[in-house]
Specification:
- This protein has one domain.
- Helices cover 65% and strands 4% of the residues.
- It has eight helices and two strands; from the N terminus they run H-H-H-H-H-H-H-E-E-H.
- It has a two-stranded antiparallel sheet.
- Helix 3 runs antiparallel to helix 4, helix 4 crosses helix 5 and helix 6 packs antiparallel against helix 7.
Amino acid sequence: MHSFTKNFLRGIIRSNPTFILLLGLCPTLAVSTSLDNAVGMSAAFICVLLASNIIISLIRNHVPVRVRIPVFIVIIATLVTIVDLMLQGFIPALSKSLGMYIPLIVVNCIILGRAEAFASKNSTTNSIADALGIGIGFAWAMILISLIRQLLGTGKLDLFGRHLFTVPGLGDNPVAIFLLPMGAFFVIGVLLALFRWMGVSAGE
């Protein structure tokens, strides 16, 4: 259990894929304009990462070294296709909003990296802990960035069509630049600087 907890917690802070390892920034920059997108992308990411880690950890001793990367990609691509079709079928509006970034999970360096660096070398239990930790780490980073961008860029907070509240002073005069790519870079840059100032760095 100690190993499970260690692997789980590491992914949330010390090996946070966004703020520490600086991986998977493409979808983070592209879809973090609203909480809807952040929650949807995070859920899809966690499902694929968790399932791929479990499957790869179970077959790791039966996959020849020479073909392990192609095998991992096929597994991840299959899982992403399932998630993409489910989104199209059950939440078409979210699927349309996320667009090509759901299929691009196939080549997401975080998921393929965890498959190669961790799941292929560790037990299923530890691979589950790793997937949950990394997944939650990615999710809270995505949600935090989206929350800041949506609040500043629109002056209000909406979640899945429901209006939650309006920011005083920004409701009528939002800072629209935060919805643009440069706004995403600025928010992530400030948060990265905050992490460095707090002394958080990669570690086991």
